């Protein structure tokens, strides 16, 4: 396939196409965690995440969320609209898990009274620190209007995703999204939504380790990582 490599991230490679407004996003089997301190591969992850993300982008588009997704063009590749990614990771949490438990002493699995939006500065050298609206303004990472939009869109995505994953018997614990600006200045959901970027628990399993169907299996060496992604793919593609 034509095109030159524009950018290689931890989980995907972006290539140019003949159209400057369109890029090819290639999903990799590589897996990293803890700011790439832990590295590995998950068999067929590229294909599974590409299929899962494609389905989710299509679903969100059908619910009125503007995304960068155009179409899936091969098992591990999709065409996307070229955007300038804001260097902000937007995390939405419904249940306490991961970094918020360490940071604030919350109990893992504690249901939050309402969804919580957090911002992290996308900066590997600094280890993606938590930032506030004031930091975003100070660092000029986005305008105050964009910050308001980011929160609104993230909460709307959360509502739609919770509904979608419920149909898959999956509990959406939390997730991370990245957004970008297209050539017309429009804010679009970009990057990916997959078990790499969401915590997903099997609704029908009570055991706190057995129910995990996302990258925490890789992070915590719980085993059956590819099997968990496969299970999510099966359910998401049927939903
Ligand atoms: O690590 P933490 O608990 O802050 O992660 C919150 C959510 O964001 C999790 O679903 C995790 O998979 C996702 N995340 C991500 N990429 C990062 C950091 C977190 O997809 N760099």
TrEMBL record:
Pfam families in UniProt: SAICAR_synt (PF01259)
Top-level lineage group: Bacteria
Protein name: Phosphoribosylaminoimidazole-succinocarboxamide synthase
PROSITE patterns xref list: SAICAR_SYNTHETASE_1
Protein keywords: ATP-binding, Ligase, Nucleotide-binding, Purine biosynthesis
Example of a GO biological process term: cobalamin biosynthetic process
Keyword Nucleotide-binding: yes
NCBIfam families recorded: purC
One of the record's GO molecular function terms: ATP binding
CDD domains: SAICAR_synt_PurC
Family membership noted in the UniProt record: Belongs to the SAICAR synthetase family.
Catalytic activity of the protein: 5-amino-1-(5-phospho-D-ribosyl)imidazole-4-carboxylate + L-aspartate + ATP = (2S)-2-[5-amino-1-(5-phospho-beta-D-ribosyl)imidazole-4-carboxamido]succinate + ADP + phosphate + 2 H(+)
Positions of the SAICAR synthetase/ADE2 N-terminal domain: 5-235
EC number: 6.3.2.6
InterPro entries in UniProt: SAICAR_synt/ADE2_N, SAICAR_synt_PurC, SAICAR_synth, SAICAR_synthetase, SAICAR_synthetase_CS
UniProt pathway annotation: Purine metabolism; IMP biosynthesis via de novo pathway; 5-amino-1-(5-phospho-D-ribosyl)imidazole-4-carboxamide from 5-amino-1-(5-phospho-D-ribosyl)imidazole-4-carboxylate: step 1/2
């Amino acid at each position: 396939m034509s095109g030159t490599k524009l950018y290689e991230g931890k989980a995907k490679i972006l290539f140019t196409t003949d159209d400057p407004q369109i890029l090819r996003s290639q999903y990799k089997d590589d897996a990293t965690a803890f700011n790439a301190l832990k590295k590995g591969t998950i068999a067929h992850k590229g294909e599974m995440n590409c299929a899962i993300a494609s389905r989710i982008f299509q679903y969100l588009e059908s619910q009125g969320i503007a995304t960068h997704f155009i179409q899936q063009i091969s098992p591990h590749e999709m065409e996307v609209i070229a955007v300038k990614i804001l260097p902000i990771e937007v995390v939405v949490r419904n249940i306490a898990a991961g970094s918020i438990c360490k940071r604030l002493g919350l109990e893992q699995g504690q249901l939050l009274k309402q969804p919580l939006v957090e911002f992290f500065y996308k900066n590997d050298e600094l280890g993606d620190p938590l930032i506030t609206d004031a930091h975003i303004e100070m660092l000029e990472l986005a305008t105050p209007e964009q910050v308001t939009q980011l929160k609104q869109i993230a909460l709307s995505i959360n509502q739609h995703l919770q509904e979608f994953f419920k149909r898959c018997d999956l509990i959406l614990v939390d997730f991370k999204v990245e957004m970008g600006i297209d050539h017309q200045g429009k804010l679009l959901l970009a990057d990916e939504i997959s078990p790499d970027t969401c915590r997903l628990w099997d609704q029908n399993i009570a055991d706190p380790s057995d129910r995990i169907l996302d990258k925490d299996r890789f992070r915590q060496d719980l085993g059956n990582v590819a099997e968990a992604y496969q299970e999510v793919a099966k359910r998401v593609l049927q939903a």
